[in-house]
Amino acid sequence: MADPTLAVDPQALKRSGNQLDSPAERLRLAKQNFENNLSRVANEPWGDDEIGEAFANGDRGYVASTELLLEGLDNLTKGLGNLTDKIHLTADNYINAEIQNSQ
Length: 103
Hints:
With 103 residues, the chain is mainly alpha-helical.
């Protein structure tokens, strides 16, 4: 029969949460770089003819797709940050529960 003991290393848990900081920062920088490069096409080089309109507008056009991509990068960055916070909170709650249980 398996040992029913649960072992948690809260410091290791916190370190694992910290490992998400680097990917979150890389995503933030990637978004920033993408936005900087978007300024190069701010003058809408696709024009306002029928082909340019088809390229730029509509649900799947360049403008909407760009907005969705930026929103997605924001959500991913925030999500990784929130996950890091939750992992740290879980470790802190475990430490506090252990302290309370040992009294």
